[in-house]
Amino acid sequence: MPELPEVETIARRLQSVITGKQIQSLNIHHPKSFVGNVAHIEGSTITDVARQAKIITIHLTGTHSLLVHLKMTGQLIYQDESGRVGGGHPTADWVQTLPSKHTRVSLGLSGGAQLYFNDMRLFGWIKAMTPDEAAVELARYGPDVNAPEMTLEYFSQGLARKNAPVKTAIMDAQWLAGVGNIYANDALFLAKIDPRRAASSLNLSEISTLYDELQSVIQLGIETGGATISHYHNIDGFAGKYQDHLQVYQREGLPCLRCGTALIRIKQGGRSSFLCPSCQK
Ligand SMILES: [Zn+2]
Questions:
Q1: CA distances from 81 to 46, 76, 93, 104, 164 (A)
Q2: Residue 59, phi-psi category: left (phi > 0), alpha (psi -120 to 50), beta (remainder)
Q3: 101 an active-site residue?
Q4: Residues 82 and 102: beta-carbon distance below 8 Å
Q5: Which residues contact 48 (CB under 8 A, 6 or more apart)?
Q6: pLDDT digit string, tens, across residues 37-68
Q7: How far does residue 210's CA lie from ligand 1's centre (Å)?
Q8: Could you give the CA distance from residue 200 to residue 161 in angstroms, rounded to a whole number?
Q9: What is the pTM assigned to this prediction?
Q10: 277 assigned to active site
């Protein structure tokens, strides 16, 4: 599942190529993937691309914008005569002819360019929304982990109220958006905190360390273009490099990078947690 750094990377890549282009057509290949009225979109020009939580907003002239959530398996792929850029769930659709059988929505842009929304599992969506509707959608999420509103005070007050395991707590998007499984695991390792600890049990020093490590793993994720854990990890314009920096994620059985103890994997809330049983307290 694309996490905040991967989604941010896609938004930045798209911003550089689609801003200023007119949407000449919007074609729905699967009705589950698009919500809204095509007539509100066609003919509009793209003015900006932004990300909040894991939602990409394609801002348009006119009354509506397009909000995109990639969920588990979504991709956004831009193509013009000079090539392709994009990202999302790494599959053969990154490189094969489009539209494919996974293409759910396609946009014909000025200059002969195309923007494809592919989604194998059909959990993702594109919604045409007014600014008020978009605000309601985005209000379902807490501040981004790397936003100015996510102060140490906000973080520590939130954790103090939560009896859930700290890993589950920091992945609660209604409170704090953008901490997915990869970065939650790595930040807790770097902060030397056992993911099973109750969030409310952390002392001030641990909270402060975890706050800093969350910021730094998300920052590194963005700088490296996110993680591409797949054999498509070398596709230029799509793949990220965070997988070269993983601390514990999917390293079960391998030696801890700090103390050499074999890392273990446990299940928490249906997700895998990876930790060092020796140096995460
Ligand atoms: Zn260790």
A1: 19, 17, 18, 22, 51
A2: beta
A3: no
A4: no
A5: 15, 19, 59
A6: 999 999 999 999 999 999 999 999 999 999 99
A7: 16
A8: 6
A9: 0.95
A10: no
